[in-house]
Each structure stands twice: as structure tokens, then as C-alpha cells.
Specification:
The chain is 31% helix and 26% strand. It is α/β, with parallel strands linked by helices. The radius of gyration is 17 Å and the shape is globular. 38% of the residues are buried. The structure holds adenosine-5'-triphosphate (ATP) and magnesium ion (MG).
Length: 222
């Protein structure tokens, strides 16, 4: 699903965010990306969803080389990738409902299907009562859950979650992890960047650790 070969990313003028990274993520896999603040986790996710481009190396997603992909093909590919950003990127003046539904409206799904899906996600994440609130007027922990719901809405082929439990207590963290696990079991490939050991310590999923833009040990094949 994701193939990185000797990828480097430099932010001008000279910040080596990633150096010579190689990683292969199989379809249906769920992997955790760990590492200290500034290690390069967000940068790695941004390369995979094509929000940033690599300076060196190959970034391939679902068989497409992202440095060569045509804009129209990229647009279609991105509809299959759900991203829960570390900084959420919600539209603050739109409702919670609208922020999540938007992800599905671009796929021309019937309105009733969209409504059922959005309401089910809100329920699963414990924010059903925030449905009609403006996304800018709810707590950070609630905004975080809206970002996750939006990323999950379209049953994406690939889901990238950047610190999905950063603002959540242990009880809500379990709801989020439960949702992510169930999506993974339904076939979604998942890459989760996190500091939160509680969400991967007791799983069998692969954990890879970044340090100053490099993996501390070469990632094992799944
Ligand atoms: N847009 C940018 N311009 C310049 N430097 C950047 C930019 N984004 C990130 N960096 C730098 O690149 C390095 C990797 O940053 P990145 O955001 O990928 O780390 P991270 O592992 O996600 O950290 P955190 O755990 O704090 O979210 C850091 O040194 C950071 O300061
Ligand atoms: Mg980050």
C-alpha cells in the first residue's frame, strides 16, 4: 500500500527532517510511528498524503509514484486516503456535522447514507451532542474526535492519524482506538503517529521509531 525507498526531506534552508528512510506497509496493516518531538513523524505522513514532496527517493502509494503522478489521478487517490491531522484542520465556522459530511459529499454519496454514517461516527466517539455546534466552538478533545471522524468517514483505503489521542483522556482514547481497530479489521491500512504508548503497548501491530529523521532500526517486514 505504501512503499518508501531511501526518502529524504529537507525543509529550507537546511533542516533534514527525514534522511534515507525506507519503509514498506502492506495492504491491511496497522503500524505505529513513534519518536520524540521533531523526529519527523508528521513529515513522513505528509509525504504519504502528498502534502509535502520528498527531495530524494521514491514515495509510492497504491502503486502510484507520488513524484510523477498526474494531478487528476492524485485527486482520485486522495479521496481514498483519510487524514486526521495533528492540528485538526477543521473549518471552524462550519458545524461538526458539516466538517465530517464534507469528506463524503465529494464522493457523491446519497444524503441519507452520509447522515447515517456521520451520526454513527459521532455516536461511536461520544460527541453526538455536538453535532450542530460550530467546530471552532468545541473543546480541543472534541475537535480531535471530529478530525478522526472526518478521516474515517469515507471508509478510506488508507488512514493516516497524526497523534489521534493527543488531547484525550484514557476513556475517550479507548473509544478512538476501538474505532481505528474496527476500521483496520474492515480492511483499512493504517499508519498512526503517536507518543501514547497505551495505544500500542498491548497490540501485535508493528511499531517503528524515528530519531532525528531516521529509523532507529530498519523496519522489519510484516
Ligand atoms: N514546515 C516546516 N518548515 C521547516 N521545518 C519544519 C517544518 N515542519 C517541520 N519542520 C522541522 O522538521 C523536523 C521534523 O518535524 P515533524 O513535524 O515531522 O516532527 P514530529 O515527529 O511530527 O514532531 P511532533 O511529535 O512534535 O509532532 C523538525 O525539526 C521540525 O522543526
Ligand atoms: Mg508531528
Amino acid at each position: 500500500m505504501v512503499e518508501l525507498v531511501k526518502v529524504s526531506k529537507v525543509y529550507p534552508p537546511d533542516i533534514m527532517a527525514l534522511q534515507d528512510i525506507s519503509l514498506s506497509v502492506k495492504r491491511g496493516e496497522m503500524i505505529f510511528l513513534t519518536g520524540m518531538s521533531g523526529a519527523g513523524k508528521t513529515t513522513l505522513l505528509k509525504l504519504i498524503c502528498s502534502l509535502e514532496t520528498s527531495d530524494k527517493g521514491l514515495v509510492e502509494v497504491a502503486g502510484h509514484d507520488l513524484n510523477r503522478i498526474k494531478p487528476v489521478v492524485l485527486q482520485r487517490l486522495r479521496q481514498k486516503i483519510g487524514v486526521a491531522y495533528q492540528d485538526f484542520r477543521l473549518l471552524p465556522l462550519q458545524s461538526v456535522y458539516q466538517n465530517i459530511a464534507m469528506a463524503m459529499e465529494v464522493s457523491y454519496l446519497p444524503p441519507a447514507t452520509i447522515r447515517k454514517r456521520v451520526e454513527s461516527l459521532l455516536e461511536q466517539l461520544g460527541i453526538a451532542d455536538k453535532r450542530d455546534k460550530l467546530a471552532g466552538k468545541i473543546s480541543r478533545g472534541e475537535q480531535q474526535r471530529v478530525a478522526i471522524a472526518r478521516a474515517a468517514a469515507n471508509a478510506p483505503t488508507l488512514l493516516l492519524a497524526d497523534e489521534p489521542t493527543g488531547n484525550l483522556d484514557a476513556t475517550i482514547t479507548k473509544l478512538v482506538v476501538g474505532l481505528l481497530e474496527s476500521l483496520n479489521q474492515a480492511g483499512t491500512t493504517m499508519i498512526i503517529a503517536t507518543h501514547d504508548q497505551s495505544i500500542y503497548r498491548q497490540t501485535n501491530h508493528r511499531v517503528i521509531n524515528l530519531e532525528h529523521g531516521r529509523f532507529t532500526e530498519p523496519p522489519m517486514e510484516p
